[in-house]
Write a structure and sequence with these properties.
Strand content: 15-25%
Helix content: 25-40%
Mean pLDDT: 91
CATH topology: Rossmann fold
Structural class: alpha/beta
CATH class: Alpha Beta
Largest sheet: 5 strands, parallel
Number of helices: 5
Shape: globular
Distance between the termini: 36 Å
Number of strands: 5
């Protein structure tokens, strides 16, 4: 079995890649406290690859994943070919999910992919400090909540956002 220490970021590559790229920039900036082991660095995908090849490579990345981050933009809920498949994989393999709203919302809203509606997931707004907190604390909390039979959306209270 693979050692699961990676963060897999799932997003609409056509419109929301800038948010993923900003996460990578935070990671590279030594003046910002933000770090993650990027699952996307495990292998490379080529333009024009078949769906089967792409999913095989994505599966290799997901096998090494400790936490799945879903960047939720305007179109994410309608993406089934890869985004829904990645989320299903995480659910089926008990990978903790952090749902990051790009619209500033701190809770599950109408842009949430339907597959996540009743699943155990932490919902946050997009931001370096809250994402860093979630990446460092949600996987362990997820395990506890799962053992206690909890499901559905989880949120950090406003007091946490205010402290950050």
């Amino acid at each position: 079995m693979a050692y699961r220490n990676k963060t897999y970021v799932c997003f609409d590559a056509d419109t929301d890649i800038k948010y993923y790229n900003l996460m990578k920039a935070w990671k590279e900036n030594e003046n910002i406290a933000f770090n993650f082991y990027n699952a996307h660095e495990i292998n490379t995908l080529r333009d024009g690859s078949s769906e089967e090849t792409i999913k095989r490579k994505l599966c290799e990345r997901l096998l090494n994943t400790k936490v799945l981050v879903v960047l939720i933009g305007e179109k994410t809920k309608n993406l089934y070919k890869y985004v829904r498949w990645e989320i299903e994989y995480a659910i089926d393999n008990d990978i903790p999910i952090i749902a990051v709203n790009l619209n500033g919302q701190k809770v599950q809203d109408g842009l949430c992919p339907p597959i996540l509606k009743n699943e155990l997931a932490m919902y946050i707004s997009y931001g370096q400090k809250i994402m860093n907190l979630a990446l460092n604390s949600w996987p362990a909390q997820h395990e506890i909540e799962k053992k206690n039979g909890k499901a559905g959306p989880f949120y950090y209270p406003d007091t946490i956002y205010n402290k950050l």
